[in-house]
Amino acid sequence: MWIESISLTNYRNYRTLNAEFSPGLNLFIGENAQGKTNFLEAIYFLSLTRSHRTRSDKELVHFNEVDLKLTGVVNRVNGKVSLDIILNGRGRTTKVNHLKQAKLSDYIGTMTVVLFAPEDLQLVKGAPALRRKFIDIDLGQIKPLYLSDLSNYNHILKQRNSYLKNSQTIDDTFLDVLDEQLVYYGTRVMEHRFDFVKDLEKEADKHHYSISNKIENLKLNYISSIKFTDNFDISVNFIEQLKTSRSRDIYKKNTGVGPHRDDLEFYINEINAIFGSQGQQRSLILSLKMAEIALFKKVTGDNPILLLDDVMSELDNNRQSQLLYNIISENVQTFITTTSLEHLKELPKNLKVFYVKNGSVRE
Q1: pLDDT higher than 70, residue 145
Q2: Chain segment 319-337, per-residue pLDDT in tens
C-alpha cells in the first residue's frame, strides 16, 4: 500500500497544497515550525480521521477559516482508492471512492499507517492511557469490529458513570442491566486486545532479538483489572468483580474495573523495561514499530504506510540502519521529517525530497 498523492485545503498552516509521492522513501526537510509535522499529521488524519497531536478538530483548520478538506489517492494490492475528509460547521464527512461512509469502522482501515513520533519514546514510562491508545489505534485499523465494540463499551461506560454520579438513589436492578451490557462489550474488547498483544509480542520479540545482537528477549504483558487466565474466564470474572466493587463504585461515583483501566507492560530478559537503559527502551519502541508493520501485512495482506516524525536523530547509527533496512527490504512507503540529511545514512535510491518552508512545499 502507498499513497500516490494528497491535496490539502485550509489544513493547519497550509492554504492549499498538492503533492505526489514516491512509493519508497519521502523526505521532508526544513527548520522547526515550518509545517513538516503538519504534513505528516495530515496523512495520519486522512487515515484515522483524527490527529495524534490534538483532540480538537478546530485546531486543524487554517486561521480565520471555517472548513478544511483532505483528499488522497491510495494504491492498494486490490486497486486504487480515493479518500476524502471534509470538516465544516455541520460536522465531519468521510468518503471512500466518493461515497459517504456512515460509520467510522467503514472508513478506517482503508489506508493503514504506522506512526513513530517523539512521544512514542514515552510509551514505556508514560501513563497507561498512552499504551491503551497505542493498542486502540493499531487494532482499529486491522480489525474494524474492534472499533465498533470499543465504541459500544465506551457508550455504556459513560451511561453507567453518569448514573452513578447524578442519581440521588441507586436502583440496583437498573445497574444490573447496565452491568450486563458493559460486560458483554467489555469482554469482547478485552478478547480483541489479549489476542492482539500475543500476536504483537511474537513479531516484536523477533525484531528486538536481532537489534540487541541476539542477547535480549522482549515480552509483552497485558494487564487487566479483570483477573483472567484465558478468554473463557473474562465475562464470568468481569460480572463478579463488578458486583464486588459496586459499593466502591457508588461511593466513588465511577466504574473501577473494566478495559478502560487496562495497561501493557514490557519486559526485557524478564526485567520490567521501566528499569532498562534509554538505549534498551528505544530498541523496544523500534521493535514495536517493526512488529506493527509485519502484523499489519500479515492481517491485511498489504503493507502499512510508515510515518517517522523527527525521530531519526533520536536513534543511533545501528538503530537507524535497522529501521532503514526494514523499510527497504519490506518495501514500505515511508515519510520522514528532519531538519537535515546529515544524520541519515544508507538512503535508498527511490526517494523524493521535499523542502518545507512557512507552509509551502517544493520538491
Answers
A1: yes
A2: 777 777 777 777 899 999 9
| Interatomic CA distance for residues 203 and 291, integer angstroms | 5
Reading phi first (left if > 0) and then psi (alpha if -120 to 50, else beta), residue 109 is in left
Percentage helix, strand, coil for the chain under 3-state DSSP, each rounded to 5: 45, 25, 30
Query: Could you give the angle at the alpha carbon of 26 between the alpha carbons of 20 and 32, nearest 5°?
Result: 105
Question: Measured between alpha carbons, how far is 41 from 19 in angstroms, rounded to an integer?
Answer: 15
Q: Is 37 annotated as a binding residue?
A: yes
Task: Provide the percentage of residues in the chain whose pLDDT is more than 90.
Answer: 72
**Class of residue 74 by CB neighbours under 10 A (exposed 0-12, middle 13-18, buried 19+):** buried
Specify whether the CB–CB gap between 36 and 102 falls below 8 A: no
Q: Any binding-site annotation on 35?
A: yes
Does the pLDDT of residue 359 top 90, yes or no? Answer: no
Element (H, E) at 221: strand 218-223
What are residue 247's phi and psi, to 5 degrees? Answer: -65, -35
pLDDT > 90? residue 152: yes
Q: Is 33 annotated for ligand binding?
A: yes
Mean of pLDDT values over 23-36: 90
User: Which residue type is seen at 70?
Assistant: L
What cell does 334 get?
515511508
For 20, residues 6+ apart whose C-beta sits below 8 A from its C-beta are 4, 5
**Is 109 annotated among the ligand-binding residues?**
no
Question: What whole-number distance in Å separates Cα of residue 259 and Cα of residue 261?
Answer: 5
pTM of the predicted protein model:
0.91
Domains with residue ranges and CATH for the chain: 1-112+303-363 (3.40.50.300), 121-301 (1.20.1050.90)
Render 77-99 in DSSP notation, one character per residue: TTEEEEEEEEEETTEEEEEETTE
User: Is 129 known as a binding-site position?
Assistant: no
Question: What pLDDT digit, counting tens, does each position of 336-348 carry?
Answer: 998 887 767 677 7
291: annotated binding-site residue? no
